[in-house]
Amino acid sequence: LAGVLSLRELDLSENRIADISALQGHDKLELLNLSGNRISDIRPLESLTQLVELDLSNNELSDIDALAGATGLERINLNHNRITDITALEGLGELEQIRLADNPGLSAASLHALTLALGDDTVYTNNPEMRNDTD
Could you tell me if residue 66 is left (phi over 0), alpha (psi between -120 and 50 degrees) or otherwise beta? Predict the structure, then answer.
């Protein structure tokens, strides 16, 4: 990927990828699909500030702090991961859609805080095993 730094859209879904460090420096990416891989570390995405749509569903994510600077992000799919802390998303005011289904470690309080920060119509979740903050 080093020779194609002008990429605007990239679909690497369903490739059993664990290491995404090759994406560093691809600052022009606006649409990125990394669903269905084995990704647990998304720090290489910190420099991708032009992202508008990001699909990280069906991976092994627990820490999404690297997304805090993705201020232009409008749509993100984080379904089917291991995410427990979503405070990094609260400052992303352009978000129109967040998918968080099947992240059983999410607390009702953290989802409520995100909904307050971004609006009721933004957050989509289906977490039957959602933990209560008193657990």
Answer: alpha
